[in-house]
Write a structure and sequence with these properties.
With 151 residues, the protein is an alpha/beta fold. The protein has one domain: Collagenase (Catalytic Domain) (3-Layer(aba) Sandwich). The chain has six helices and four strands. A four-stranded mixed beta sheet has the order 1-2-4-3, with helices on both faces. Strand 3 and strand 4 form a beta hairpin. It is globular and about 40 Å long. It is found in: Cytoplasm. GO terms for molecular function: metalloendopeptidase activity; RNA endonuclease activity; zinc ion binding.
């Protein structure tokens, strides 16, 4: 299977335990995970942030005053995907621990999830859409060697 091209910018904000998150996110892995979720060529920025920045972005752009695991800012979907994916490191780490997943497996899931959002998939528009998106995530992650993230 030929994968779509990806121009990737990987950024890390300043936050406690940043080195742990950098180690879990080698650039080649992040690119591989995203490329497997792409249905067209893309330019994507991935930014890993601390709780304060994550909360500010969620508050400012979604009117929800808490840090969330992943935010997707999609600018174009066709013929070329352009998007920013912002992942909040402390939230991702807590969720991984709570769900007994490795940090890397949870990041892979959230990057696939965010990449699908960037292409127009939305699990919040109805049960059928949620099932379609989850099925795609499970299939993509299985192809990457990760377990079903919803178990």
């Amino acid at each position: 299977m030929a994968l779509n091209s990806l121009s990737l910018s990987l950024q890390f904000g300043k936050f406690p335990d940043a080195a742990l998150h950098r180690a879990a996110l080698p650039r080649h892995s992040v690119a591989r995970w995203i490329r497997h979720a792409l249905q067209s060529d893309a330019e994507i920025t991935v930014r890993i942030v601390g709780a304060e920045e994550g909360q500010a972005l969620n508050r400012d752009y979604r009117a929800k005053d808490y840090a969330t695991n992943v935010l997707t800012f999609d600018y174009t979907q066709a013929p070329y995907v352009t998007a920013d994916l912002v992942l909040c490191a402390p939230v991702v780490a807590k969720e991984a621990q709570d769900n007994q997943k490795t940090l890397q497996a949870h990041y892979a899931h959230l990057l696939v999830h965010g990449t699908l959002h960037a292409q127009g998939y939305d699990h919040e528009t109805g049960e059928e859409d949620a099932e379609e998106m989850e099925a795609l995530e499970i299939e993509i992650l299985a192809g990457l060697g990760f377990d079903n993230p919803y178990r």
